[in-house]
Amino acid sequence: MKNKGPWRITFDTNPDDCNLHCIMCEEFSEFSSIKELRVLPNGVKRRRMSVDLIEKTLEEVKAYGSVKEIIPSTMGEPLMYKEFEKIISLCESYQVMLNLTTNGTFPRNGAKKWAEMIVPIGSDVKISWNGVTKETSEQVMKGIDFDQNIKNLKEFLNIRDQIYREGGNYCSVTLQYTFMEINSQELPELVKFAAKLGIDRIKGHHLWAHFDEIKDQSMRRSSESIDKWNKIVKEIQKNVEKYRRPDGSRVKLDNIYLLNPATSSVELMKDSVCPFLGREAWVAWDGRFNPCCAPDEQRKELGFFGNLNEASFSEIWEGDNYKDLVENYLDHPLCKGCNMRRPEGDIHA
After folding, report:
1. Among residues of the chain, what percentage have pLDDT more than 90?
2. Which residue in 16, 173, 245, 276 has a CA-CA distance of 20 to 30 Å to 304?
3. CA neighbor of 118 nearest in space, from 79, 154, 152, 175
């Protein structure tokens, strides 16, 4: 009898491909040194996953009967992956849903065509959205045309709603935020914006401060900044009640919580737990198994668990190294201070 398998797998399909330079991105920020490696004559090889590895993994996890959806790369822009259409076909073949995070520019095919392909097999599409005003959004997500992204969002929602009206799949749409000093004050207004358009959810996480240049953007950097954050959260909660979606329902909030000023730089919420270990899996572009979505260099500190080009999924998932991490993750400083931990009652089954 096999152990319970993951309900979701993330594949880092193309972490070296993106058309934006968001200030907080470990890969593409103007403050990142990683980007320099991509332009050197003898620089690192472009990291792009073989679609065959995705199929191999899906075939192996069938035995668990647990996988409900997959996520293509959350590092880089997944819609720039040239074999993305094959991922859609694999979702159909293996009867799993697609959960997508995109920067909202919808490269290669445009919002309408992508919506027509993704919505029928989509569980949720998370669109990176880091401000309500053009000024703030373009300061954070360097390279976007904010007005065009609004047009793209509306076009995607129109196709989503049309497919559902015609009896097709309902694919939820989420606006995904990184909570920072520069943009957090716009979150209450984002609720109003999202409700008017029929957005299902606003989800976010506190800043991973990869660079010295953005450490002053963390809302967790001091008791004063946490106090400011908590006031914003209370205003967000009021607006969720005040501004409703066209059908009268509330915009859902995900990972937007009051913080304890006493734990500002140590633990986000002392009694919170990891939502990923034993529940989800990550596969790097080269086949390396990863236990979570922490920044790539940091999560390597948690250990090596195996490579799916060399071992089966079950050998890794049920291996001693991974089991030890699942049981003892709070022994690791990275896990203790992780931005992603949640109250136990707010974990996907």
Report:
1. 72
2. 16
3. 79
